Amino acid sequence: MRFDIITILPALLESPFAHSILQRAQKKGRVEIVIHNLRDYSTNKQKSVDDYPYGGGSGMVMGIEPFANCINKLKFEREYDEVIFMTPDGETLSQTMANELSGKGNIMILCGHYKGIDQRIRDLFVTREISIGDYVLSGGELPAAVFVDSIVRLLPGVLNNETSALSDSFQGELLDAPIYTRPADWQGHKVPDILLSGNEAAINNWRDEQALERTKLRRPDLLN
């Protein structure tokens, strides 16, 4: 799988992809993550990518030409399953969406900044708009990193224990059950006896019950 991320702040994305699971996934050849500096596709001497909005108003708007130049170059080199724009007014990222997109081959991600991007970029090039929540950040780089992480961990061979991703919260429309590790008794705070019983069927039933109760308490909307 390959991700091409277009941004004006490539350095901001270096660390998230250089550690832990995302780093290992790249070393294993399970995913390729390529970051493109949008300013390299600006045609003016200042390498600027923004301008004042038509009709007045505050803030600057990212222009269409640098994005078009970069997108067209990448599309000439390969086909893309999705061209995604990270934006607060997009559809909210979910586990179901991550599961779906993990089956894709090539995904391009556009990171906005300033007041936003020229609407024509969204109309002409973007196939899907995704948000990581109902709040506004300074740019699309951090949402892009979150988005990529949510997908890469689902790819075969990325996690040491591939069944781990299948038991994550939201995979079965429920939150995950409580989890524990050693010691079994810490200052009088004990692990539930059922987890120490060795009875796999009973443990699984307990986890299912706990997942349902936790979801009822914290996210009843998921049960609808």
Topology:
Layout: E1 2-7, H1 20-27, E2 32-37, E3 50-51, E4 61-62, H2 64-77, E5 82-92, H3 95-101, E6 106-111, E7 116-117, H4 119-124, E8 128-131, H5 141-152, H6 163-166, E9 185-186, E10 189-190, H7 200-218
Parallel strand pairs: 1-2, 1-6, 4-7, 5-6, 5-8
Antiparallel strand pairs: 3-4, 9-10
Structural notes for this entry:
The protein is of the alpha/beta class and 224 residues long. The chain has 2 domains: 2-152, 3-Layer(aba) Sandwich (Alpha/beta knot), CATH 3.40.1280.10; 167-223, Orthogonal Bundle (Trp Operon Repressor, Chain A). It is built from 7 helices and 10 strands. The protein has helices at residues 20-27, 64-77, 95-101, 119-124, 141-152, 163-166, 200-218, and strands spanning 2-7, 32-37, 50-51, 61-62, 82-92, 106-111, 116-117, 128-131, 185-186, 189-190. A 5-stranded parallel sheet has the order 2-1-6-5-8. The protein has a 3-stranded mixed sheet with strand order 3-4-7. The chain has a two-stranded antiparallel ribbon with strand order 9-10. The chain is elongated. The two termini are 34 Å apart. The relative contact order is 0.15. The model has no long low-confidence stretch (mean pLDDT 94).
